[in-house]
Design a protein that fits this description.
This protein is α/β, with parallel strands linked by helices and 294 residues long. It has one domain: TIM Barrel (Alpha-Beta Barrel), CATH 3.20.20. 40% of the residues lie in helices and 17% in strands.
Length: 294
């Protein structure tokens, strides 16, 4: 959807989108979302039915037309299994190529953002991996500036202390490590609230400590506060009313993405979340300006 240079009023309901993942072909997902009055979607394009190599000129044109026909804002979502903190020969080059391929395709699809991750370490090599990840994301942000793409770095989930593998950018300190070092208009933040419940800062701590002017997406799911889950809103511990008060009251104008259960669960969850926001005094259907441009 081409809205460059515009600031369009949208209600909270309209700003709550859905993560399609790879549950259906991208064209079908966009049409499904549009038929259900959803205006924000993101999708993974690694393998079938959305294998990256399958997006030739004809398919890109079809996707762009589907977005225009359905007033859709499209984003892409890289795999967290791809280790952005990779240091091994050949593999480290492949990760750079992987990120560039996502950015190149985002431009061809008119996708407005790409969710990326900081990778993971194996406990004893954390410093080495953090530096490798920082260097790689810097390179990716530089490339994004050149081609006109936007990267959104997602805060990932805590893993138990006794686990060997740990995600990077899982708490405020690690997130600030990246955002304090990379001052690029092509790198912003994707705030996953259920991940935030697994660290001591919690959702409020992230909002207090992170540069909220760089937050462009908030990813929504509930959690039990003990380990990583993507639960239906209201089934866990998150106070979504307080979350909406902090974000909307603080001036957040980006989009939200439901990422839990089935696509039908995500669709039903929009109404539940709007009800929670309205109960907390945040209007769900009143229009307000949005900064999302593509």
């Amino acid at each position: 959807m081409n809205t460059e240079g515009e600031s369009q009023p949208m209600s909270l309901r309209d700003r709550i989108g859905i993560d399609l993942g790879r549950k259906m072909a991208l064209e079908e997902g966009i049409a499904w979302a549009g038929s259900n009055d959803v205006h924000y979607v993101d999708a993974q394009i690694d393998i079938a039915p959305n294998a990256l190599e399958s997006f030739d000129d004809a398919r890109c044109l079809t996707v762009r037309k589907a977005c225009d026909d359905n007033a859709m804002h499209l984003g892409l979502h890289t795999l967290s299994a791809v280790n952005t903190a990779e240091v091994s020969p050949f593999l480290r080059d492949a990760v750079d190529q992987y990120l560039r391929a996502y950015m190149d395709l985002a431009v061809r699809l008119n996708a407005e953002w790409i969710v990326v991750h900081a990778g993971y370490h194996f406990t004893s090599d954390k410093s080495l991996r953090m530096q490798a990840s920082l260097d790689r994301i810097k390179r990716a942000a530089d490339y994004a500036e050149k081609v006109g793409a936007k990267l959104l770095l997602e805060n990932l989930n805590w893993e138990p202390d006794h686990a060997e593998v740990h995600y990077l950018a899982h708490d405020v300190e690690e997130c600030r490590y990246f955002f304090d070092a990379i001052d690029s208009s092509s790198l912003a933040w994707s705030f996953t609230v259920n991940h935030a419940t697994l660290v001591r800062e919690g959702i409020d701590g992230f909002i207090d400590a992170m540069p909220m002017n760089r937050c462009e997406e908030v990813r929504l799911a509930d959690n039990n506060g003990e380990y990583e889950l993507h639960m239906f809103p209201g089934d866990g511990i998150i106070d979504f009313g307080n979350m909406f008060q902090r974000l909307e009251g603080g001036g957040f104008t980006g989009h939200y993405t439901n990422a839990f259960g089935s696509l039908e669960d995500c669709l039903r969850g929009r109404d539940v979340l709007v009800e929670m926001a309205e109960a907390a005094g945040i209007p769900g259907d009143a229009d307000r300006p949005t900064d999302r441009t593509g």
